[in-house]
Amino acid sequence: MPELPEVETVKKTLQQLILNKTIANITITWSKIIKHPLEVEQFIDALKGETFVDVGRRGKFLIFYTHHFALVSHLRMEGRYALYPKDEPVDKHTHVIFHFTDGTELRYRDVRKFGTMHLYKRGDEFSKAPLADLGPEPFSEQFTVEYLQKKLKQTSRKVKPALLDQKLLVGLGNIYVDEALFRAGIHPEKLANSLKKQEIAILHHEIAATLSEAVEKGGSTIRSYINSQGEIGMFQLQLNVYGRKGEACKKCGRPLEKITVGGRGTHYCPNCQKLKK
Question: Cα(23)–Cα(218) distance, rounded to whole angstroms?
Fold first, then answer.
């Protein structure tokens, strides 16, 4: 599933590709992607004649802005957007096509069909599902050491599942939680409320640093992720632990291990991230 750096990269790419393009029509072949409004015809009728004026991001969600509407899109496991000329053959896994008046098309492809789209009037998107209950952005002023300490002290969960909670902090997923915890020297099974203030301060720094570096590199190409122009991210070349089970730790040389924490495959170094009782 794309995480914050990948979605940020897609956002920036789409800003280059679709701004000022006007929607002539929309083709939807898998209606379950459209979550609001429930009637697909309402979704299409609302956006006909609208022009994309901006593309934003909230956590792992893309937000397509027209003059009157905000389209909130979640890519889930394998959702992708790409711009095509109208005469380009349509892939069988393409489920939503925005036909533009200039003869190009923005196509949404999703092999697993897990992606979602919610359409709201501009200004309503942050007070409605799925954006209403999200936590702060990791680069925002709201995400302070004090905030992170308060939230972690309030939960009895292990630190990894706590950090994956989008109500606590948006944008983090399996890859970057593993990476941030490794860089902070914290075992993923350590109880969140047992972390000392200094550990939380280091973790706070490493979360922001890890995500910042990943955004700069265009995200990580894990499994099928590419951006909207077919370009791969490069951050996977500097991953410390994720996907490296059995390989040597870049810090100490010990073999990296993989366990399950909160139902998620978790990579860590048993030497650099000791579970202190």
Answer: 28
Q: What is the dihedral of CA 31, 32, 35, 36, to 10 degrees?
A: 20
Return the SS3 of 275: coil
Cβ neighbours for 277, distance < 8 A, ≥ 6 positions apart: none
Contacts of 248 (CB under 8 A, 6+ apart): 254, 255, 256
Q: Under 8 Å CB-to-CB from 91, ≥6 apart: which residues? A: 107, 109
Q: Which amino acid is at 138?
A: P
Beta strands 34-36; 54-58: pairing state: unpaired
Q: Which three-class secondary structure state does DSSP give residue 46?
A: helix
The bridge status of strand 116-121 relative to strand 34-36 is parallel
Give the active site residues.
2-3, 60, 264
Q: pLDDT tens digits for 219-240?
A: 554 433 344 454 444 445 578 9
- The span from the CA of 154 to the CA of 157, in Å, is 9
Q: Identify the sign of the CA torsion 258, 186, 170, 172.
A: negative
pTM for the whole structure: 0.91
3-state secondary structure string across 162-227: HHHCCCCCCCCCHHHHHHHHHHHCCCCCCEHHHCCHHHHHHHHHHHHHHHHHHHHCCCCCCCCCCC
- Residue 168's pLDDT is 97
Low-confidence ranges of the chain (pLDDT < 70): 1, 218-237, 277
Question: How much is the pLDDT for 116?
Answer: 98
SS3 115: coil
